[in-house]
Amino acid sequence: MPTLRRIAFALLSIGPSIFVASCGDGGAAASPPAAESASALRGLCDPADWDLEDAPFRPRPTGLAGQTVRAEEPGAIATVLVFLDTECPVANAMAPELERLRARFAPEGIAFRHVYPDRTLTVEAIREHARDYALDAVAVRDPGHVWVERFGATISPEAAVIVDGDVVYRGRVDDRAVALGVRRPGPGRRDLELALESILAGRAPDPARTPAVGCRLADLPAQGARD
């Protein structure tokens, strides 16, 4: 117990100075013993990185190498998040379309991220899924459902398009899936593509919401596709 008290006292003693040093001037004034901790805290100084405002103890979204990933790509015109489940047949059938959209719009300044909310998925399972379905977008793990809740996703596949912090489009990629197990031969309307074309033309996507059809995301209550 004395050892635990000493550790707690040490943390309380250096904590405020670390935070002030890292937030006040970018960490330049941090003392050498505190430098490493100051670097770790620096991300908390930028509100754009506060993905856990109302859930500070959940794991934040990370890339497959464990790095922190922002929801929005800095400098991008828009960022597309597509929420996926590796076992969802609707999402897997959509993989060629997702890659076609990425290949078309990435050179225009639109970033793409594939978000995997299933907390049981390992990094290798996600990498294998990306290899099997030739998906080249940045893969992000969201086991704490931080982005799921922040952007209102419930279905795999479901897209959320972010511009300057706002979700300007959320819903299906296209309308080829009518219901689970019911598909059209091809899409009648490519909703995500039309939304991205509108953004590049300086217009707001219309409609801004469409019903996503697919599999319920892991760990969410089971129910039908959401409007």
UniProtKB/TrEMBL annotation:
The keyword Metal-binding does not apply. PROSITE patterns: PROKAR_LIPOPROTEIN (PS51257). The keyword 4Fe-4S does not apply. Residues 1-21 form the signal peptide. Keywords: Signal. InterPro entries: PRX-like1, Thioredoxin-like_sf. PANTHER family: OS07G0260300 PROTEIN, THIOREDOXIN-DEPENDENT PEROXIREDOXIN. This is Uncharacterized protein.
